[in-house]
Amino acid sequence: xxxxxxxxxxxxxxxxxxxxxxxxxxxxxxxxxxxxxxxxxxxxxxxxxxxxxxxxxxxxxxxxxxxxxxxxxxxxxxxxxxxxxxxxxxxxxxxxxxxxxxxxxxxxxxxxxxxxxxxxxx
Length: 122
Prior knowledge:
Layout: E1 4-9, E2 16-22, H1 25-35, E3 44-47, H2 49-64, H3 69-72, H4 88-109, E4 116-121
Antiparallel strand pairs: 1-2, 1-4, 3-4
Helix pairs in contact: 2-4
């Protein structure tokens, strides 16, 4: 068991996974804060271009200055949420997410994609 997280496009049975994480609780915390959701419940959030840009910018800020991590993308404790350390896994997860967000923004700028959905299971 653990925190499994997904970015998808499409709706209903037509959903396709764009990217997935496991126990990236710092990103889950960002989605919860961004949408003002209950952190004690499973979350699903529709993200538009502005959301993707903001997340990308927050990740860039932390990657450029890792000391800002606890302030910009703090970890979130939870029974199935994994480590709350600011370790290699934390930063590798951010770097991989940044790359995916860049590709999503290219698709959005081309008009191929308007929104993506963040969802999770734990």
